[in-house]
Structure formats: C-alpha cells, structure tokens
Predict the structure.
Amino acid sequence: MATRKKYIAGNWKMNKLTAEAVSLAEEIVEGAKEAKCKVMIAPPFVALSEVKKIVKGTNVILGAQNMANEKSGAHTGEVSIDMLKDVGVSVVIIGHSERRILYGETDALINSKILLAIKEKMNVIFCVGETLEEREAGKAFEVVTNQVINGLKDVTEKELSFVTIAYEPVWAIGTGKTATEKDADDVHKIIRELLEKLYSKELAQKMVIQYGGSVKPENAGALLAMENIDGALVGGASLKAEQFLAIINSVK
Ligand code: PEP
C-alpha cells in the first residue's frame, strides 16, 4: 500500500485582520517546525502578502481560499490565479461548501477552476461533501461520487498530482458535529474506489484525501488513524495556534 504523507490545512475563512493574521502565522511557523506532516494555512486574500513574509523559507505552505475561473479581465471582485502566484500562493481551496451553498458555485464552475489551476501548475484542495438532508436521504455516497466525477472532468491521471481531495460533510462544518471516524473513512474509501475506477489503482492509493468538519485536537488523532484519512482541512480550530498545532502534532 502506498504511504501517503499526512496533510493538515487551515482555512481561516473571513477571519483575522492583517496584523492578527501575521501573529497567528508567526505562532504556527514557530510551533510547526518539527511537524511530521505537510502544513498549509489559507488566510484571507488581503493578508496573503504579509503572511507570505512570515512563511517564506519555512515548512508552512501558503494557500488561498478561492480563485476566479478566468485569467484576467472584467470580473469585478474576483482574484486571479496570477495574482495569487504573485503573492506566493502555491495551493488554492476550490469547491468549499460555503462557496457552493452561499455563492452558488456549481460543479461546472468548480471544474473550470480546477482545470485552470492545473494548467497553471497551482496545487488544489478540492472539496466535496453532502448536506444533512442528502445524508438522511441515504444519498451521501451518490452526491460525493457525482461531485468528484464532475469536479475532475477532463483532468488526467498525471494532472491529479496537483490535486488533494477534502471530504467535508456539510453538516459537520462549523457545527461541532463530527462524522464518526468510521462514517468519514467509509466515504474516503468510496472516493478512493471511485478514483481507482476512473483512473488506476496506483493513483487511488497515492491520492491524499483530507477530512474536514469540526476537526479539533480531541478528535484529530482518531480520525487521522483511519486507513483512508490522510489529513484534515480545519476551519474553526485553525484560528487558534494552540489548537491547530495540537492537530498538527497529533501526526506522529
Ligand atoms: C471548513 O470550513 O473547511 C471546516 C472544516 O470548518 P470547521 O473545522 O470549522 O468545521
């Protein structure tokens, strides 16, 4: 079986003014020096350049929370991939459920962003996950399967080296409810089996699949011990250095 390096990413969402972002980044950089996993932080766009100065030359990667699906032009309010590269971003979160639900992002739009990112050699954390309604209707596997198929449309096996998948059940995001380790691992396994069908066994074994949804120091160890869970995309707990570092340090 392939050994997959654990990957812990912090999505700061619409939190932290620049000075606060800088000091949080400083604490994370300091505390993550000996991390056994890959570490990423995704501050708000306007704090990226200042946070870049803090993470430069360290083992903490700079991420963005979203990007436009067009390279440039008349797209008021959008942020382009070149702008992200210009400030030192090397990975972008695409298809987060808040973008899908609050801002109407469709699978097709998400797919176009993923294709653009790959073309421009930008790494991607591609988020998928079902709502509570969908889970209760017994449709979790079907919803996630469709999101993966549609989001990765026209992405080749080779290009998937730019992609990490994050399974984030919408009902567990910011709610304090976590999927049980078994429920989460079951969906991760479905995703891995789907990748094997769509691509190859080798690719499926290599793919890093993060879990997201109220990951905290108290539950991180058990989640990360599951066979198919290769890391975490952390929201709330990534806003406090102590908690985020405890999650990082739960990777032995
Ligand atoms: C997220 O938004 O990606 C997330 C998982 O948030 P939280 O950890 O707060 O549930």
